[in-house]
Amino acid sequence: MAANIGEQGYDRAEEVKQFNESKLGVKGLVDSGLSSTPLIFIHPLELQQLQPTTRLDAQPIPTIDLSDLHSDRHSAIVDQVSAVCCNFGFFQITNHGIPSVVMDRMITAVKSFHEQPTMVKAQFYRRGSGLGVSYFSNVDLYKAKAAS
């Protein structure tokens, strides 16, 4: 039985450390057959009460059209991207000029990477930024009240 967040004996720092050192990432947790959400992913009750309960499907995903990026609308598009990042967190871009065949190949490559054995992915798992490719979960894992 997993300990509740407020229960005696639950060591969040140790659970975060174990998650990070496992180099599994969230997909690795899912693939391992978890039957419940690890406590490090559950926001403390005081934070849950501050969060709006808006469902994602209540708002359409914002779409930003880049067709006029190299025009006098450049500044307005940059402002739109900034606002959407701050207020929504993610968005869809249209008219970016990247051929669909390139996008499809990129998505296939990302999926292929995540389907590799953990030992292969672990070679690229690191928290620090630097040169080359890195792979990790939860940018603010050691600072946030709950993993994302």
Automatic annotation (TrEMBL):
GO molecular function annotation: dioxygenase activity; metal ion binding
Taxonomy, superkingdom: Eukaryota
Keywords, sorted A to Z: Dioxygenase, Iron, Metal-binding, Oxidoreductase
Domain Non-haem dioxygenase N-terminal, chain residue ranges per copy: 61-139
Protein name per UniProt: Putative non-heme dioxygenase domain, isopenicillin N synthase
Source organism (scientific name): Rosa chinensis (China rose)
InterPro entries: DIOX_N, IPNS-like_sf
Pfam families (UniProt xref): DIOX_N
